[in-house]
Amino acid sequence: MSLEADLAMIAEQERVLQFDRFDLDAAWALGAELHALSAARGHVLAVDIEMNGMRAFFAATVGAKPDFEYWIRRKRNMVLRFLRSSYGIGLDLARQETTLEAKWGLATADYAAHGGSFPILVRGVGCIGAVTVSGLPQRDDHRLVVEALSSLKGIDPASLALA
């Protein structure tokens, strides 16, 4: 796994995983898919989908901790500020050998450049929200979100997987 290869694949994920339309029914379907995948695999995590400034979906698997929601808020803030995946931003900061604080003056109490949040992008509109999970290692959080988004779009998740 190379940093450059990961960043290139994340850019491709962000390009491909856009929707022609995304509404509350789509949010429910995406959230239910994430919850089902997590429950089937025995993952302990929480799932959040925010659209247009409102929570459209939230669920947690057995064993989830209140701290997961804190991480969700911070990762989601990254996506809604920069309109990119939180993992991509974190890897880009690592490549530049800098931090949120040094580059943008952002407090880690409010922002987290860790994997698990992905923009909900609608063609011709832009970013309308974010889908976020927390509870797994950050790369796995990111992978899970990409897998569920791919499934919702009818795309083979392996074609967009990180190495």
Question: Would you kindly provide a written description of the structure presented here, covering whatever features stand out?
Answer:
The chain is α+β, with helices and mostly antiparallel strands and 163 residues long. It has a single domain (3-160), classed as Beta-Lactamase. Helix content is 49%, strand content 18%. It contains six helices and five strands; from the N terminus they run αβαββαααββα. The chain has helices at residues 3-16, 24-41, 67-82, 86-96, 100-104, 138-153; strands at residues 18-19, 46-51, 54-60, 117-122, 126-134. It has a five-stranded mixed sheet. Strand 2 and strand 3 form a beta hairpin. Helix 1 packs antiparallel against helix 4 (86-96). The longest helix has 18 residues, at 24-41. The N and C termini lie close together (6 Å).
Can you describe this structure in just a few lines?
By secondary structure, this protein is α+β, with helices and mostly antiparallel strands. It has a single domain (3-160), classed as Beta-Lactamase (2-Layer Sandwich).
Helix-strand blueprint:
Layout: H1 3-16, E1 18-19, H2 24-41, E2 46-51, E3 54-60, H3 67-82, H4 86-96, H5 100-104, E4 117-122, E5 126-134, H6 138-153
Parallel strand pairs: 1-4
Antiparallel strand pairs: 2-3, 2-5, 4-5
Helix pairs in contact: 1-4, 2-6
Question: Which features does this protein show?
Answer:
49% helix, alpha+beta, 5-stranded mixed sheet, Beta-Lactamase, single chain, 163 residues
